[in-house]
Amino acid sequence: MSTDALCKDARIIFETGYRSVQPLNLINKEVEINSNSIQIQGKSFPVFKNVYIVGFGKAVLGMANALETKLQEHLVSGIISVPDGMLTTLNTKLHDHFSSKSCIQVYEGASNNIPDENSLIAATKISGIVNSLKESDLLIVLISGGGSALLPAPKPPLTLKEKQKVIQLLASRGADIEELNAVRKQLSMLKGGKLALLAKPAKVISLILSDIIGDPIGMIASGPTVQNSDNPSLPLSIIEKYNLIQDLPKTAIQILTEAANQKQINESFSHVSNFVLGNNETALKAAAEKATDLEYQTLIVTNRLSGTASIIGTKLISLVMSAVDKRNLNEIINELKLPSHTQEMISEAIFQLKTYGKKLCLLFGGETTVEVKGTGLGGRNQELSLSAALELYNRKPQNSIILLSAGTDGIDGPTCAAGAIASVSLIEEAKSKGLNPSSYLLNNDSYNFYSQMNDGWWLVKTGHTGTNVMDIIIILIT
């Protein structure tokens, strides 16, 4: 197959994956409502025109719309906080509904996934509605990836600007999502279960779309409805790990130090029920079905891929090349922390490829990180893809191989792309233009590199997808 044909297939497979976790599909599948009750995954809750909705994240606009349609007269009102521009970039029907027909107020903010004054206003409004609830009320909390930035409520005397600095510094040093959220919870008035406590004595139902490996509900959007089980000294130890004690605002250090020295109080969360409606595995299974329909022998290798994006991109190509060459395969599998059966599974697939010419699709899910050292523009998926492309070019495989890495939310870093595609011909094109791809990678400038290649054709652009279950990586081999 030609590279163009492989790229087309990869884009189709990716689209199928992220569309499978669209909020409307998940709500219709997992939530049933009749005249006096709501059923979710086998549990039933009474409803008597006493339901309120709050939400925050990249998927909650669609979740809220689907729920409002189902709840009808049972819904009193609601407030949701969504990424800046989402209401205008998603379909016209959603825009019209929330602009004129809905009893749910929509606030947009957190441009580039950074908490801002707009998201702070939304968080304040959400706090107000939650704090006003009575024992007879039912609160439905919609939570998805990006929710942390959309629910900023800094613990006094910390300011929003100071909290932004804390998170930006941690992210630039390579802190992963678990570490970022552990610190966020300690610095927040709502995260780490505090939103659910504020809702007492009302009943609370959380509907969650997971964007973290392993679906730890206490980490998703920093767990606003989940009892915080972190050791109180953990956030401060994370700050120390990245040598940031001297760089952070004194108010942040003060709050973290006081928390580390306080005895933890265990509050009751018996009024809260949390449900995960969809995750990365959901998307991978749908992607695998589409790849099989396209006549690929398809393997879901893992949904727990993590690590530094540029290193993972190189290692994924090394994994494929080691399987083809039958050399050092187990070593690469261990480095990528893949399941123990991976060697046998991939080796058999490569045998089928070589012996019978069967096309192969390898699927990976998870989320990598970027350690920012340069001044360029990019995201983890574009950086992973660029490093993979360089490794392909250097290894010069006999098979046709492409890799697509993209975020299911449609936004990769502060760019308009979801991700990008890697192939040997991409680097050949760059070399013919006199460009040095390695220098772009070192400068964390993958977006500007890809934008110059065939008018950005190698970029994967979807716009806001209205969902978020981490990343999908697709490797196609013929």
Automatic annotation (TrEMBL):
Enzyme Commission (EC) number: 2.7.1.31
One Pfam family in the UniProt entry: DUF4147
Keyword ATP-binding tagged: yes
GO molecular function annotations of the record: ATP binding; glycerate kinase activity
Keyword Coiled coil: no
Residue ranges occupied by any MOFRL domain in the UniProt entry: 361-471
Catalytic activity: (R)-glycerate + ATP = (2R)-3-phosphoglycerate + ADP + H(+)
Keywords attached to this entry: ATP-binding, Kinase, Nucleotide-binding, Transferase
Residue span, MOFRL-associated domain: 10-256
InterPro entries documented for this protein: GK-like_C_sf, GK_N_sf, MOFRL, MOFRL_assoc_dom, MOFRL_protein
Family matches, as Gene3D superfamilies: Glycerate kinase, MOFRL-like N-terminal domain, MOFRL domain
GO CC field: cytoplasm
Similarity section: Belongs to the glycerate kinase type-2 family.
Name of this protein: Glycerate kinase
